[in-house]
């Protein structure tokens, strides 16, 4: 992980990286993902933790970020790459525009996570539905704590899978990017497996009624042209 306070490479080279997202969490919850593929997808650079033999003896911590209608995808990832002795830390969207959303997700994922795997409710993490930097902070903090506490065991694998809407997924991606070790001798690795659905089902009426909110995130650089700002001052 980069040293705290180290200069950001993108920022140092004068690069501004902004992300624009049209977010409608309510609509995302109404889109059903069906028939997940048998072949998992791995983000490039985030697969060795699950594929390299040298890391398979390390304990695994899994952070599934929960969203509606993704139980079959979660089970596909869980059955293929998450061992029975893994530590599971579900991430729920809260606060949310729908204050009961997290409760419904707990019921929806009760069988695979809490009955079959006996995940303790004390492992649940809460991430703000519409604030990706808060999701980033919560997830990164949990990953750092597990990495430090499991270092005595030789190392650990930190696995993140997002089944949620765009903004929380963006926060999770930022956490994984920052947590990714740049030293091959580091005693932990990060993986991002995903089971891609082969089809999505959504009501045309729900799509037409959608009123997404536009979110603009500045990941590095400046929101405005500094030269123009200085010229007008």
Q: N-to-C terminal Cα separation, in Å? A: 39 Å
Tell me the structural class: alpha/beta
Shape: globular
Largest sheet: 4 strands, parallel
User: Poorly predicted ranges (pLDDT <50, ≥5 residues)?
Assistant: 1-5
Give me the strand/helix succession.
HEHEEHEHEEHHEHEHEEEHEH
Largest beta sheet: strand ordering: 5-4-8-9
Helix content: 25-40%
Continuous helix count: 10
The radius of gyration over CA amounts to: 19 Å
The mean pLDDT is 85
* Tally of DSSP β-strands: 12
Which strand-content bin applies to the residues?
Answer: 15-25%
General description of the model:
This protein is of the alpha/beta class and 233 residues long. 36% of the residues lie in helices and 23% in strands. It contains 10 helices and 12 strands. The strands form 5 sheets. It has a 4-stranded parallel β-sheet with strand order 5-4-8-9. A two-stranded antiparallel ribbon has the order 1-12. α7 packs parallel to α8. It is globular, with a radius of gyration of 19 Å. The termini are far apart.
What descriptors fit this protein?
single chain, 233 residues, alpha/beta, four-stranded parallel β-sheet, two-stranded antiparallel ribbon, 10 helices, 12 strands, 36% helix, globular, disordered N terminus
């Amino acid at each position: 992980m980069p040293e705290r306070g180290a200069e950001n490479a993108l920022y140092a080279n004068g690069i501004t990286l902004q992300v624009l997202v049209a977010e409608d969490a309510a609509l995302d919850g109404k889109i059903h993902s069906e028939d997940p593929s048998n072949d998992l997808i791995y983000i490039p650079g985030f697969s060795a933790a699950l594929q390299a033999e040298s890391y398979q003896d390390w304990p695994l911590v899994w952070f599934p970020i929960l969203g509606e209608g993704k139980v079959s995808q979660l089970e596909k990832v869980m059955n293929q790459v998450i061992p029975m002795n893994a530590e599971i830390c579900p991430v729920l969207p809260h606060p949310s525009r729908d204050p009961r959303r997290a409760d419904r997700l707990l019921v929806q994922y009760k069988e695979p996570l809490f009955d079959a795997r006996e995940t303790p409710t004390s492992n649940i993490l809460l991430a703000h539905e519409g604030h990706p930097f808060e999701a980033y902070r919560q997830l990164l903090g949990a990953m750092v704590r597990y990495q430090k506490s499991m270092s005595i065991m030789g190392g650990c694998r930190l696995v993140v899978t997002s089944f949620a809407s765009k903004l929380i997924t963006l926060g999770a991606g930022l956490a994984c990017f920052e947590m990714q070790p740049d030293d091959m001798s580091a005693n932990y690795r990060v993986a991002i497996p995903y089971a891609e659905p082969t089809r999505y089902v959504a009501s045309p009426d729900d799509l037409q009624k959608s009123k997404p909110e536009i979110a603009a995130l500045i990941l590095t650089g400046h929101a405005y042209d500094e030269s123009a700002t200085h010229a007008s001052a």
